[in-house]
Amino acid sequence: MKKILTFVVLLVFILSFAGCKPAEKQPAISERTIKLAHVVNEKDSFHISALKFKEVVEAKTNGKIKVEIHPNAELGDERTLIEGMQQGTIDMGVITDGPVSTFLPEIAVFDMPFLFKTPEEAYKILDGPIGQKVLKDLETVQLHGLAFAERGFRSLTNNKRPVKTPEDVKGLKIRVMQNPVYIDTFNALGANTVPMAWGDCLTALKQGTIDGQENPIVVIYSYKLWETQKYLSLTRHTYAPAVILMSLKLWNSLSPDEQAIFTEAGKEAAEAGRKYDNDNEKTQLDEIKANGMQVIEDVDVDAFRKAVEPVYTKYSAQFGDLLKQIQDALKK
């Protein structure tokens, strides 16, 4: 009888454990609040990317990590944001690549004039090995790049005259980003080039101290530049990426699980911004026209390409193999 009782107890004990599964490993998530900044308004694709990043991170961490979005340069201009990330005093930003090139010059290779003909060409390079290597190189300057977001093809506005050819650009006082490739591109076109931060540009346009600027359609639309500019020429002279950027110090403080979530959120945020711009550009352009801005579509692109050839001559040594890799990849 004792043996039978012992056997029954042992059997119950074994069966009770047989029904138990090992506890699933829970992601290592610490409660924290991340501040994500950008310098444009809430109608811009940067903000769309920021909202998507917030949505994904908060969902995947069950709200343990919260993301605060600070638009409209609340935390400073783009250079200030980058420097803050390097020092660890600012967490994250969606940043135009132009100012980033001050710290990592090689990223300016993507700004070479007329390098890309379509968004798809740009995405092929940015999301492929070449672009991902440049993102990794950001760690050499105390930054971590999650993904390339959308800024888009840039076109020229001014309040002096319609621009169809490089000859029409000569003498115009044009604001560009603080990026040597942009400066040299517009110098090659004969403009009086003025590099300045975006906030300063808006003031200068209102005061009439500059004649024009260059930006993607979404920026021209969201800032109602028809209020200060008469002409928009669809030069599409440069495809400019943006970077979903964060402090390397913050990145290194994240657990592997948190890093995986941030990486996924960065990719989804980049895609959301791209989709927003591509889906809305035509509607935005129609509204720009409806508000009285004269849109010049018959731009002599071949003449512009020829006019900026000196930019390629100047930077062929600096970008060297990297530029050739991009050009070769685009031919495949």
UniProtKB/TrEMBL annotation:
SUPFAM superfamilies: Periplasmic binding protein-like II (SSF53850). It comes from the Bacteria. Residues 1-18 form the signal peptide. GO terms for biological process: transmembrane transport. One of its GO terms (cellular component) is outer membrane-bounded periplasmic space. InterPro entries: DctP_fam, TRAP_DctP, TRAP_DctP_sf. Keywords: Signal, Transport. It holds the Pfam family DctP. The keyword Transport applies. Belongs to the bacterial solute-binding protein 7 family. This is DctP family TRAP transporter solute-binding subunit. It comes from Caldisericum exile. The lineage of its organism: Bacteria, Pseudomonadati, Caldisericota/Cryosericota group, Caldisericota, Caldisericia.
